[in-house]
Structure prediction request, 222 residues.
Amino acid sequence: GKFREDPSISHRALERAMKEYPYLSYQYIEAANDLDLNFGGKNSSGNDIDFNKIKADAREKYLPKTYTFDDGKFVVKAGDKVTEEKIKRLYWASKEVKAQFMRVVQNDKALEEGNPDDILTVVIYNSPEEYKLNRIINGFSTDNGGIYIENIGTFFTYERTPEESIYTLEELFRHEFTHYLQGRYVVPGMWGQGEFYQEGVLTWYEEGTAEFFAGSTRTDGI
Prediction:
């Protein structure tokens, strides 16, 4: 909302929120973000709040676990409540989807070497509530069940219960993983750029094939 006529009142209120709420709580991070956006990252005394450190500490707190597969080409950063079994299942799901994708497109060579997607990073928060922090600490929209950002080769999502989403984590991962494969092996350039994306005429292909390959299996095709 708009500041009151005296911005110093809002300035002090944000500073007070950072003192009252626990370090790295949602309210603390939100207040720090507002200070960074509206007051140059400084408190009312003119001292730097070191917002970059706050964001780095938040990533460490909310994504403390790291798993590495395929000689570092597939990396998972996860919340402490996301089980190792679930992580491994997602890894094997990626193998199923990729195998069927390659069988259909008949190409297993990346269109452009040296892109950020040479390494795929999967970021999984513990819950929808913790996922909301991704808007602040990584700078991407959280008004979704998960999102793949091609120009950094990273998929952001969260663990969920049946009540929190009509899609399971694995179902959503399979869909978004197909978008990763599309960008790496079929469509040159970054997402949203180039002839493929002009006027949105091939959105049906992009989303349709993602839904199609999400049903991939190891032994029974798609």
Notes: The helical segments are 7-20, 26-39, 51-62, 84-105, 128-131, 134-137, 169-185, 203-213. Residues 7-60 form one domain. The two ends are 49 Å apart (CA to CA).
